[in-house]
Amino acid sequence: MGRGVWLTLSALSVLILSTAAFWFGSGYRASNGLSDGINVHGAWEVTVSDRDGSNSVVYNFENEIYAQGAKTLAHVLMPYQDSTWEKIAQWTVTFMRAGSGNANRLCSSPAKASLLKGRSGTAVGISLKASCSVDGDRFTKVEELMRVYTYSINIPNAGPDSVGREFTSKFLDSPISVSPDQVIEASVDITFD
Predict the structure, then answer these.
(1) Structural domains of the chain, count
(2) Which of 37, 127, 135, 141 could form a disulfide with 28 if both were Cys (CB 3.0 to 4.6 A apart)?
(3) 76: closest CA among 168, 183, 153?
């Protein structure tokens, strides 16, 4: 193949990647009536209970894709032959108090990703489930769960080094009270339409 063909293919790849990032990142909806674009939704169910499963309280909320989450989708959607293609190796769900950094993590555990199946048998989303106990060694009083997010560990096609990216994120409208050693369970359904 000639150099002109490779340049054309490279330019086309950049255009597709930019368009995908725009659609996924902004929840773009076309106004011409021909297409509704692609929207990403995160439906969360968080349950807080005592270690034995008693006194459980369930919270439900929605969130959108995190701005940088569009990069994860764009990299995954690229053809395998493209050097920017990435494989998602692992997902985590993180529970945070106010602030950032490890000191504010109430607990964090890997969540296994599985594909949801639509009526036609095609993939329509990602289902993540995670549970952990509030760290009773670090937290000795009631704390407030203020933020939840999903995180992907990606393996690039171009090399062995993994890249971690926040995918969906939500600052809660009303904080959730959690006590030391309570269990937090999350079920997150990330769907695309």
Answers:
(1) 1
(2) 37
(3) 153
